[in-house]
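step: validate -> pass
step: tokenize input -> pass
step: predict -> running
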Amino acid sequence: MSEIEQIRNFAIIAHIDHGKSTIADRIIQRCGGLSDREMKEQVLDSMDIERERGITIKAQTVKLNYQAKNGKNYVLNIIDTPGHVDFSYEVSRSLSACEGSILIVDSTQGVEAQTLANVYQALDINHEIIPVINKIDLAASDLDKTKKQIEEVIGIETNNAVPCSGKTGEGIEEILEQIIKVLPSPKGKKNEILKCLLVDSWYDSYLGVVILIRVIDGKIFKNMKIKMMSNNQEYIVEKVGIFTPKPKDVNELNSGEIGFIITGIKNLSETKVGDTICDAYKPLTLPLPGFKPSKPVVFCGLFPVDSSEYQKLKDGLAKLQLNDSSFSYEAESSSALGLGFRCGFLGLLHLEIITERLEREFDINLLTTTPGVVYKVHLNTGEIVELQNPSNLPDPTHIKFIEEPWIRATIITPDQYLGSIIKICQNKRGIQKNLSYSGNRAILNYEIPLNEVVFDFNDRLKSISSGYASFDYEIIDHKQGDLVKLGILVNSESVDALSMMVHKDFAQSIGREVCEKLKDLIPRHNFMIPVQAAIGGKIIARETIKGFKKDVLTKIHGGGARDRKRKLLDKQKKGKSRAKQFGRVEIPQEAFIGVLKINKEK
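step: predict -> pass
step: emit ->
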């Protein structure tokens, strides 16, 4: 048996919280990757935030040696993937580096929306799949029902499904044996010209950029001169290594293997995920197909609460981008909030993770503006403008129409919550495409505008269904929509940080709510402050914050009092109108946060 036939490369895929990282822990323990003393729970979740939330954000790899029951030694390369919808790009690139997948399904919850999404991604690239049914040690576990669901909903045979428990370690040996029997070995040739896939890259403060690669053909070794095909840059390989899961240096990586190289690159933008790496002296003519680059879909402004922390925020964003190329940022300024950054994210969880990391790792107090999506604005001239920030919307007279992104959503829910979930989807302008059943669970397919989903759809879905419904989406297309820019005016001045794109039918109700909220949150001044919501030049809602009134008449008594009172009141009126003209209205931070909460409640 040749070396390459003893290699198995596989990904672990599942819905969020079905036990991927725990089963990876048990496999590492069984294969002796770490000693009992070094072992800790979710050993592959290296970030504090991953451990606290119990989720995987970055895909991680491990190389293990396993002696099978047939007496032969095998090399297992595991990639543990994230389960959350925002990190599905991590899943797609991890799958491209493997030949097979272990699909983990929780026997107490069954098939969920993310299970489906990840399995279809694996089937699209012709993966062999081993179903594993986890958490059989729990009292609520139902093996037969889960097997039936896997067959009905996904359409995979469950004759060789392995029942196991990541917690107790039961069934781990069977999983390893199935990996050897069912999953194919890589199809590469050691003596061919070097061909590598760049799977991932991240920044290490000691080593520079670490590049995770999958060698397809040939071999890569220390001091070799390599070439990146996307930008034709050449580099010398300084270090070659594998993760066991601790980094370990090796002399070379051969075809079929997964490992890392270090080439002295200091800038992460030079390493494009999905790029092809080849020998600089024997370059390839055609690159590997690679995979679609991740595109930010949700944008929002990040501003420091204290303007002196602007530089700190800038440095923090630059450092985070080194390890997460999927989020983008550019400087922007706002008359209300000062200097900050317009940032692009893959979804709301991604936004939450980045803002939490900025606050925690760099100690910055942040203010985030209303998250929004990218609109395509078609102008009368035929030009198409991509709009991220509603305050930059061109003059409405120049606009022919506006397109917004739509998603295809898959929702899996117990049927008792179906009515309420259909109602939410309809309120969000959703179009029902399909409804099918597996046992007592409904599988709903909807097309919904991304703008309607981006705030709170997932939270509301979970609260309506007591946490039982699961949701996954993919972006399908931009469609024309009847959209308007809702501007907010405070004391007749536009507050750009509060402007938002809304559907025309909802504009009046949202405008009224924002005005009512701001009336309560902006403190009273010495003069009256109008708070208005407007579409273009048309005011559609208004509230008034009353000014303080000083009683100037208390000390006036005796003859001619009436005229003197009139005189003083006129003088006060003039002072108030001058104050209104030149006075600045300070909008407190709570007001911005309050308006964000309205959007969430909507």
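step: describe -> The first strand starts at residue 7 and ends at 14.
step: cleanup -> pass
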